[in-house]
Amino acid sequence: MAPLPNYRPKQLSVGPLEAEILNIIWELGAATVKDVHDRILTDPNRELAYTSVTTVLRRLTDKGWLACNTKGRAYYWRPLVTKQQADVIRAHEQLQRFLAVGNPDVIAAFADSLDETASEQIQAIAKRIQAARQAREEK
Fold first, then answer.
1. Contact present, 119 and 125 (Cβ < 8 Å)
2. Cα–Cα distance between 55 and 39 in angstroms, integer?
3. Cα 117 from Cα 29, distance rounded (Å)
């Protein structure tokens, strides 16, 4: 997984429609309101006002997820972080909240309840952390 990016959105939480629109922007790279609206309406059972898409794009811009640029008379939204960077940021936030418990007994009890696959993942993570520390010390 990639290192923690230097840039982070101001507000990490996004609602379901915001997440859907953010995924569309990640797929397209950059998009107009019409591009996003048309993509959503490819589902024949879906209704969504054009103005609602505009509102959500502005909200994602205010939260720091998107930037808006103009090209001629059209407004284009583009992501400020990649999907992979967003995943890293969210994972980091979740880990920080988990570690904020601060009680080793609670964390140990949690680790004790993991299945074999999860335990193996934890061990692999611990090995990568150790390797990263050793690499830093060797520099």
1. no
2. 16
3. 35
DSSP characters over 41-60: TTSTT----HHHHHHHHHHH
134: exposed, middle or buried (Cβ count in 10 Å: 0-12, 13-18, 19+): exposed
CA-wise closest residue to 21 among 57, 50, 69: 57
Helices (H) and strands (E) in the chain, counts: 6, 2
Give this prediction's pTM. 0.79
Dist. CA 134–CA 139, nearest whole Å: 9
Mean pLDDT per block of 10 residues along the chain (139 residues) reads 83 96 97 97 94 97 97 94 94 86 78 82 86 84
Q: Which residues contact 55 (CB under 8 A, 6 or more apart)?
A: none
